[in-house]
Design a protein that fits this description.
Largest sheet: 9 strands, mixed
Distance between the termini: 53 Å
Helix content: 25-40%
Oligomer: single chain
Strand order of the largest sheet: 5-4-1-6-11-8-12-10-9
Radius of gyration: 19 Å
């Protein structure tokens, strides 16, 4: 399965502002969060992207991603009817094609020569069904993420067949329904903030939509797990959820420590720790 389209959700209350924040890349370039995401998307070979925005936000986002405007379509989510509804807003853009879905409040740092996104797309190229990026995550972080249940695919170290999906489960529910053999106790496979999805997911969303309630994405993913070969790929890298407390700071530190100024940054961190004891 070849992916040529991407959708980035950026219409949520926090997502209206966080993607416009700036950080310094490992090479010393100052960019917005939105620009970092698009850099990675287009470097992977994807040809076009849609950004789901709140009404009136197009001007700010256009300024934030000026170098990529020719490849980007802005789509307004006119009413805050949930994350699933935000994805559904891109239905005409997606058409009948598989697509990449990313969140605008996540940034990534790979442990390998392949970017986190390239790791996901590499798995997607071998299957016709949806693939979600996941990472082993401590139960203290469950309130922030959707979480999967599944089984490891024989002979594949980091690949799982998804059997169930729950949105932000409690540790008690996770222990009852989401334990995956081989993971450290108290850890679960949580979403990494990027998915390769098929048009059937959009159909599930469309069938579930009602203007009287918010539409989440997770129920449609859970339905997909029952009808398609739905895989999860454990990514070798870090995700920085910049919506978390100090998330933007963690992202900046991660990038700084992976760049040419690592020693200087480490020295500054040690100096700050010493001065603020």
């Amino acid at each position: 399965m070849t992916i040529k389209k991407a959708v980035i959700t950026a219409a949520g209350l926090q997502q209206q502002h966080l993607p416009l924040q700036t950080l310094v890349s490992p090479r010393g370039q100052t960019k917005t969060v939105a620009a970092f995401l698009l850099d990675e998307i287009f470097a992977s070979g994807i040809e076009s992207a849609a950004i789901i925005i709140a009404p009136g936000a197009e001007r700010d986002f256009s300024s934030a991603i000026a170098d990529h405007l020719e490849k980007v379509t802005f789509i307004e989510q006119s009413s805050p009817l949930g994350y699933g509804h935000a994805v559904l807003c891109a239905q005409n853009f997606i058409g009948e094609d598989p697509f990449l879905l990313m969140m605008s409040d996540h940034l990534y740092l790979s442990f390998t020569e392949s970017s986190c996104l390239q790791q996901l797309l590499s798995v997607a190229s071998t299957t016709d069904g949806p693939v979600s990026a996941v990472q082993a995550t401590h139960e203290s972080k469950l309130p922030f993420y959707g979480t999967i249940a599944g089984s490891r695919i024989s002979g594949q170290k980091n690949l799982y067949e998804v059997s169930h999906v729950l949105e932000k489960p409690t540790p008690t529910i996770a222990e009852q329904e989401l334990i995956i053999p081989g993971l450290r106790a108290g850890n679960y496979l949580c979403f990494f903030g990027m998915h390769v999805l098929t048009p059937s997911v959009i159909q599930h969303l469309s069938n579930s939509f009602s203007e009287k309630s918010e539409l989440g994405l997770t129920p449609s993913l859970a339905a997909t797990a029952k009808s398609e070969n739905y895989l999860a790929c454990e990514i070798q890298g870090l995700r920085f959820n910049i919506e978390e407390p100090h998330g933007l700071l963690r992202a900046q530190l991660g990038m700084a420590l992976s760049g040419d100024s690592r020693d200087e940054v480490m020295g500054s961190i040690i100096e700050l720790i010493s001065a603020t004891r």
